[in-house]
Amino acid sequence: MTADSLLPLAGITVVALEQAVAAPLATRHLADMGARVIKVERVGEGDFARNYDDAVHGLASHFVWLNRGKESLALDLKTDGGRDALTRLIGRADVFLQNLAPGAAERLGFGAQELRADHPELIVVDMSGYGDAGPYRERKAYDMLIQAETGLISVTGTPDEASKTGIPTADIAAGMYALTSVLGALVRRGVTGVGASVSVSMFDATVEWMGHPMYMRLYGNRQIARSGVGHAAIVPYDRYPTRDGEILIGVQNDRGWRVLTAEVLSRPDLAEDSRYATNIDRVNRRAEVDALVAVETKRFSTDELDERLAAAGVPAAEIRDLAGVVAHPQLSERDRWREVDTEAGPIRAVLPPMTFDDVELRMGPVPALGQHTDAILAELED
């Protein structure tokens, strides 16, 4: 038995008419797990994420992150030949996933209803910004816009200024729900033999992630406050100064408060003070509690306090920049880095988060635009 045959999606073929972030993230994970992913791109232009930047040896950082392990097929879908090739390719596939503009796939003849009528076993995943109905259906749906419409920006940032997240959270949310929908549909098809038509929108995915702030609004009748790296419902949970820097401490419960104050900070009087006994008490006295903790944390160096917190089991972390993440001992000591080929030469990439005990997931090359067109078209002639 070969290593590739142990990959969980070995033998599954995915055709992706995709661009940008959300859909490519879903299909890259499918490729990592062993699926054959054929990425259909525009002739001459390709996925526009190829041109977001040139940070990776002249290639775009988004593209190399999201598209390893795929085959690139360049087609002109405005031509009969291009549409015919895609039709035949979908007829051989297990999954067809697309995130074109609303209605574009249907106008090209690749709507879910039409495809499933010809191939009832096919799994079709349509990804969109706002869903397939409703007053916002036709709107542009970039990550920043979805973060705004779903309230994510309203709870992100500091008390003085709202902010979007530093990564494309709405895209990632939609991509992960698309991924899980494919896996679920494949499991169901294995039992029933029937495919599926699935819709995933960035809006719905991000609203789902707004869980606790939304429930606080629904039932607590309040908008949670922006709190920087702090937490609207937990105290102490923030960045605190040390003698030579700062550290993040996140106390999740009342026992943790007592351990922090009595054992780590050597302030048993705070642990016993009834004014701070419960998290609700501490939230109501947020500024007072944070100030008390800050006075004590400044007595220690960052390394010393980090060691004391870890020994006591109090959640804490260094606030690392990206250079610190790249050099993180948790990655290097667990051998999480691998080399991935690209047209510009090999690059480093981190192993997928899903770790199987009997096989390492596949991290294939990042394709050049149209690299596999001739070979795939030749297959269709067989």
UniProtKB/TrEMBL annotation:
InterPro entries: CoA-transferase_III_domain, CoA-Trfase_fam_III, CoA-Trfase_III_dom3_sf, CoA-Trfase_III_dom_1_sf. GO terms for molecular function: CoA-transferase activity. Pfam families: CoA_transf_3 (PF02515). Keywords: Transferase. This is CaiB/BaiF family protein. It comes from Gordonia rhizosphera NBRC 16068.
